[in-house]
Specification:
FAD/NAD(P)-binding domain, five-stranded parallel sheet, single chain
Length: 481
């Protein structure tokens, strides 16, 4: 595949970002495209490894060596055809996915892995620029009608697959715009909404129907949905955030990260936000509790809102720069990572736990109290112990809780009467059907909080299950069982 000696001749090229001083002045995409000669070299590093573990690392089963080889040979249109064969939305994964494929790359045994994600994004961007991405309406209509509840990546992937199989598809979204977390949870600087909108236009041209401000179980009666549709897919995500019930939690200025990000995205969409509801960071000491991607999204947003200072807290110790001995290839490398937002400033504080939010005397937060902690392992169990005499305060005018999500909201699930697991996720069988006949599920609503690549893979798999239920058999691919 690609150039036989490419991995010996060329080193890994990191993703390019626009200069910090430039990008902090706007909300545009921070990533800069790699030049064509660089992309050719990066694709050339993909070696004929015999067993491509990148396939195992990618839940979608992307044919990564194939399209790396095609890019190396300058066969870009063939490359997008091969990429679209397994992935409905490579522009989403190429921008937002943490690339488990790269963690599984065979080259990663003793070298830096292939720059798979950058090549993937370059393929789809080139395809849109060249006009190769066109609507693919079905050749025939089945007469079946499917309701998809939720318009995140799982719901959209399932909707496109089902529509191409000839079914009528209506996507219900309770917000005022389509996209779910892609619309309101992902900052503009990480993925511009034009990228989402151009893909939605394709789905609409294929015949997918979108209904916004349609809250199933509130505005849309469950009985009507079951009566009017031959099948229903629940793809509403895991939207219940993990809380931090500590003293001072109810103080003004302590908010969930997603509330903060949603308001920032709404304003960029042109929506008006009342001053008493705005969660701006300008001129404030901001503390983000949670060291993951959502926390980094808050960090970059706070920078662009000209926060006075931002600190991001993580309860675990700082990861090592390289793989530890107990984290061998092809496991996901648990190493220290720096996002574009971290390059822009702020402090990352590891190995600390929050004890309380401190009142300024007028009902608003003025600081948080933290303590150093050590994570210890004994008899196969992990414990977190406070370090004596390490308690201290951090100035804080805006605290953002970015500790992930626990499970799906129960209201609509209870109305459908579907079975849930002990973790609060929707139970499903091997055909992606819930405990209620004709009602299916996919994405974080049944898996729990996960990656965008898993959501798309589950949406595709659930679409195959629904098609089989409606027609007796299916030709739709199902990457997951």
């Amino acid at each position: 595949m690609a150039k036989v000696t490419g991995f010996l001749e060329f080193g890994r090229e990191k993703v390019h970002y626009r200069p910090v001083g430039e990008r902090l002045k706007d909300w545009s995409q921070v990533m800069a495209p790699l030049p064509a000669p660089t992309l050719n070299q990066q694709a050339a590093r993909c070696m004929d490894c015999g067993i491509p573990f990148c396939h195992q690392g990618c839940p979608l089963g992307n044919l990564i060596p194939d399209w790396n080889d095609l890019v190396y040979r300058d066969r870009w249109q063939d490359a997008i055809d091969r990429l679209h064969a397994t992935n409905n939305f490579p522009e989403f994964t190429g921008t937002l996915c943490p690339a488990p494929c790269e963690g599984s790359c065979v080259l990663g045994i003793n070298d830096n892995p292939v720059t798979i994600k950058a090549v993937e994004l370059a393929i789809i961007d080139r395809a849109f620029d060249e006009g190769w991405v066109k609507a693919q309406p079905p050749a025939f209509e089945t007469g079946r009608h499917v309701a998809v509840v939720g318009s995140g990546p799982a719901g959209l992937a399932a909707a496109q697959q089902l529509r191409r199989a000839g079914h009528r598809v209506t996507v219900f979204e309770r917000d005022d715009r389509i996209g779910g977390l892609l619309r309101y949870g992902i900052p503009e600087f990480k993925m511009e909404k034009r990228v989402l909108d151009r893909r939605l236009r394709q789905l609409q041209d294929e015949g997918v129907e979108f209904r916004v401000n349609a809250n199933v179980g509130v505005d849309i009666d469950i009985a009507d949905l079951k009566r009017d549709f031959h099948a229903v897919l629940l793809a509403g995500g895991a939207t219940v955030p993990r809380d931090l019930p500590l003293p001072g939690r109810d103080l003004k200025g302590v908010h969930y990260a997603m509330d903060y990000l949603t308001l920032a995205n709404r304003k960029l969409e042109g929506d008006r936000v009342a001053d008493d509801q705005d969660l701006r960071a300008d001129g404030k000491h901001v503390v983000i509790i949670g060291g993951g991607d959502t926390g980094a999204d808050c960090l970059g947003t706070a920078h662009r809102q000209q926060a006075k200072h931002v600190a991001q807290l993580e309860i675990m110790a700082r990861p090592p720069q390289t793989r530890a001995s107990d984290n061998p290839w092809p496991e996901w490398p648990r190493i220290y990572r720096t996002s574009s937002a971290h390059e822009e400033g702020g402090d990352r504080v590891y190995g600390v736990s929050t004890k309380r939010f401190i009142d300024d005397g007028n009902g608003a937060v003025r600081a948080i109290e933290i303590v150093d902690v050590e994570v210890k392992q004994a008899n196969g169990r992990m414990s977190i112990e406070e370090v004596p005499d390490s308690t201290r305060e951090l100035p804080c005018d805006l605290a953002l809780l970015a500790m992930g999500f626990v499970h799906a909201e129960r209201g609509v699930l209870d109305q459908f009467g579907v079975k849930v697991t002990d973790r609060g996720n929707v139970w499903r069988d091997s055909n992606w059907m819930t405990s209620v006949e004709g009602v299916f599920t996919a994405g974080d609503m049944q898996r729990g909080q996960s990656l965008i690549v898993w959501a798309i893979a589950e949406g595709r798999s659930a679409a195959a299950g629904i098609d089989r239920f409606l027609m007796g058999s299916t030709d739709l691919p199902a990457p997951l069982s």
